[in-house]
Amino acid sequence: MDLRIGIQNSPRELGFETSQTAEEVEQAVAAALTGQSPVLRLTDSKGAVFVVPAAALAYVEIGTESARRIGFVG
């Protein structure tokens, strides 16, 4: 699934692909926004860990879990 995270006072967003489910990502975001966790911690599909302070989150866009197409789309 593709994720895009907007960070306050940053012109760029953080984008990566993760093997976590949409529900797992939503739970992690909710925990960070409600103060249960001081950071949002997510892992990409290659094993890299991304840690964003909860206070710096602007938005989190959760993409679809569909497989990518190969070839030309007409």
TrEMBL record:
A Pfam cross-reference name: DUF3107
Top-rank lineage group of the source organism: Bacteria
Name of protein: DUF3107 domain-containing protein
Species whose genome carries this gene: Agromyces indicus
Species lineage: Bacteria, Bacillati, Actinomycetota, Actinomycetes, Micrococcales
